[in-house]
Amino acid sequence: MLSSIARSLHLGVSGCQGSRRSIATIISGNKTSKLVRERLKNEVEKMRTQFSGFRPSLVVLQVGDRDDSNLYISTKLKAAAEIGIDAKHVRLPNTATQDEVLQSIRLVNENLSVHGLIVQLPLDSVNPINTELITNAVSPEKDVDGLSCINAGKLSRGDLNDCFIPCTPNGCMELIRQTGVSVAGKHAVVIGRSKIVGAPMHDLLLWNHATVTTCHSKTPDLPEQVSRADILVVGAGRAEIVRGEWVKEGAVVIDCGINHIPDETKASGKRVVGDIHYASANQRAGFITPVPGGVGPMTVAMLMENTVQSAQRLLLKNQSMR
Hints:
Blueprint: H1 4-8, E1 16-17, E2 20-21, E3 25-26, H2 29-50, E4 57-63, H3 67-83, E5 86-92, H4 98-110, E6 116-119, H5 131-137, H6 149-156, H7 167-178, E7 187-191, H8 198-207, E8 211-215, H9 222-227, E9 231-234, E10 252-255, E11 259-262, E12 270-273, H10 278-281, E13 287-288, H11 295-320
Parallel strand pairs: 3-13, 4-5, 4-6, 7-8, 7-9, 9-10, 10-13
Antiparallel strand pairs: 1-2, 11-12
C-alpha cells in the first residue's frame, strides 16, 4: 500500500481497464526533491538551535568558466541557501595546474569548518589534469559527491552507513521508494556502467536485495534484458535508446538521461529527452520518471542530503569525544 506521501507525488494513476493498462504513474522528482529539501531545512534549523548557530558548510571548487558548469553550480548554491547550508564557490582560472587544484583541495580538507567538498566536473583547464587523481584527493569524510575510490569501495562492499552515496543513484533510490514498490526480491536492470551513475546504481540495488543485471554497449540482447526488469534504471547517455515495447508491464522505470534532440517547434530548435522513449514506455510501465523533472532535481537534493549528513556525523563525533 502506498504511503500518503507517495500518493501525493503521483500525477497519474496506474492500473487496468479491462484487459488494457492505463498510462504509467509519473514519479515527480520536482515534488520529491521539495519534500527532501523541506526535511533538510528542518534538520539544519534543529542543529542551529542545539549548537548555537552551527551551520553545515559546503565548498564547490570549479576550474575554468564553462557555461554549463556555472548553471549547475548556481542551482546547487541556490538549493544550499534555501536549506540553510553555508555554501561557498571557489573558482580557479582555466590556467590552473594540477598541483594548484590539489593545493586548493588540501586547504579545504584541512578546514574543520567545512563539511562537504565537491569538485565540479569537467575540469576546464588548458593544462593536463588527472580527474581521477583530483576526485580521490578529496577527503572521504567530505566527499559528498561520493566519487572517491574510498567511498566507491565501501559502497561496493555494502557499507552503506559508512560512506557517501553518489547523488544521482541515491536520488533514483528515493524515487523508487516513493512508488511504494519494494526493491527486495525484484529483478532490476541497470543500463550504463559509469562511475557516477551505472556502477553505484548496481551496488545500491544489490545491497537493497534486488537481483541486478547491468547492461552496457557490449550487451547483445538489450531488449530481452529490459523485458525482464521489474525495476529499470537507464543511464546510457543516448537519446531514447530504450523503446517502450521492451518494457515489462507494470515495471518501475527510472530515466537518468538528459539529451538534446532537434525540434523545429521549439524556439531553441531542440528539446530535452531522456534515454527512454517516454511516449511508448509510459503505456507499459507502472511508474515512470519524466525528463525533465524526474531524476535531475533529485541529484541536487541528495547532494544537500549528503552535506547535512556529513555535518551531523561531525557533531556526533565531537560529542562522543567529550
